[in-house]
Design brief:
Keywords: ATP-binding, Hydrolase, Nucleotide-binding, Plant defense, Repeat. The chain is of the alpha/beta class. The chain folds into 3 domains: 139 residues; 165 residues, Rossmann fold; 44 residues, no CATH class. It has 17 helices and 5 strands. It has a 5-stranded parallel β-sheet with strand order 2-3-4-1-5, with helices on both faces. Helix 13 links the parallel strand 3 and strand 4. Helix 4 packs parallel to helix 7, helix 8 packs across helix 9 and helix 11 packs parallel to helix 13. The longest helix is centred in the first third of the chain and has 34 residues. The chain is flat.
Length: 382
């Protein structure tokens, strides 16, 4: 039994999860958190399999556990293949004009229905893996053991990498102009507080509402550029590793020093580079609700001398994350109106220089816009 168990490998599944998690295509963005959890669960299962020879449980109990694991692994593999295929199919389909998009929305392949379907399947698989983990750690008595040759890359949870630069479909901001203006005013107000730690403004909203795009719009505002001496963009995602975040801050400030490993040395260099400067730090896509991690990061930044009037923006889906980090009134992103969703669809399908939209296309596309639920991401891929 031990020999059979140890031949089980989730490596192929983990490779697929990592590949999809790194995919910037909008179809995948709605369930990246679920993919991250799936990745973490399979890593834990792999680590537990290394403890089979140490377990006192044998026979039917262990055999049934293995059978359940095999079934779940096959289901996960099928779901990941389905997602991978749909990503490729949609990339080709999205090159078509609005007429094709109108037809495809009402088919079984529409992206909104697909996202919900896949998210539901992955959540069920994650729940099954969680139950297996509990069973392994309980009645079966398996302990997660780290492989001797494991590297940091092997155990890294897949994350979403964002950059401060605009992608082509992010340059036109619809329905958020007033929000951008209000946040810019808040951040550029003179801050003569004696407290050296910068105020934190949280942008909160569900997946697809445009938190990252909004943060980019603020980041690139001319008033922001004039007010702050330094602007820094860090994609946090998962996990919230303080040393990694600090290294990325340093990389933005002084790229030639980014390879330094010691946390204390990194902090010292950041303090030197930011001393007596107003800075704007954007922490994009934060998931960790651990206040101790946040305090650890704050402790380093708060030692920088004379950075009054600096500010931090945090984007997150989680109300709990916002409560842990924010010191300013938060920005809760609203859903867009149907008309605003339609304008996004119109801009994407009918660029400058293309044939004008017919009345029939306008009526059909406005009907589709109503199905987007006020989510700009949906409008971009419909």
């Amino acid at each position: 039994m031990a020999e059979f168990l140890l031949t089980f490998s989730a490596k192929e599944i983990l490779t697929k999860v990592i590949s999809l998690a790194a995919e910037e295509f909008t179809l995948v963005l709605g369930f990246k958190g679920d993919l991250a959890q799936l990745h973490a669960s399979f890593l834990k299962i792999q680590a537990m399999l290394l403890d089979v020879d140490h377990s006192h449980v044998r026979g039917v109990t262990l055999e049934n556990w293995v059978k359940d694991l095999e079934d779940i692994a096959h289901k996960a593999d099928d779901v990941l293949d389905e997602i991978g295929y749909e990503v490729l199919r949609r990339k080709v389909e999205l090159r078509n004009q609005m007429k094709k998009k109108v037809k495809s929305f009402f088919s079984h392949n529409n992206p909104i229905a697909f996202r919900f379907k896949m998210a539901h399947k992955i959540k069920r698989i994650n729940k099954s893996l969680l139950d297996l983990n509990d069973e392994a750690a309980g009645p079966i008595g398996l302990v997660a053991r780290i492989q001797a040759d494991a590297t940091s890359q092997d155990v890294e949870v897949p994350d979403r990498e964002t950059i401060s630069k605009f992608y082509n479909d992010e340059k036109l901001i619809i329905g958020r102009e007033e929000v951008v203006s209000d946040i810019v005013k808040t951040l550029t107000k003179s801050n003569d507080s004696a407290e050296n730690y910068p105020p934190v403004l949280a942008i909160v909203g569900m997946a697809g509402l445009g938190k990252t795009t909004l943060a980019k719009s603020i980041f690139h505002e001319s008033k922001i550029d004039k007010h702050f001496h330094v602007r820094i963009w860090v994609c946090v995602s998962t996990p919230f590793e303080v040393k990694t975040i600090l290294r990325r801050i340093l990389e933005s400030l002084k790229s030639e020093e980014a390879a330094i490993q010691g946390k204390e040395k990194i902090c010292n260099l950041i303090q030197k580079e930011l001393k007596k400067k107003r800075y704007l730090l954007v922490l994009d896509d934060v998931w960790s609700e651990d206040p101790h991690k946040w305090e650890e990061l704050k402790n380093c930044l708060s030692t920088v001398e004379d950075t009054r009037a600096s500010s931090i923006i945090v984007t997150t889906r989680s109300d709990k994350v916002a409560k842990v980090m924010e010191t300013l009134p938060r920005c809760d992103l609203r859903r867009l109106s149907d008309d605003e969703c339609w304008l996004i669809m119109k801009d994407k399908a009918f660029s400058v220089g293309s044939a004008p939209m017919s009345k029939e296309q306008e009526i059909a596309s406005k009907e589709i816009a109503k199905k987007c639920g006020g989510v700009p991401l949906m409008a971009k891929v419909c």
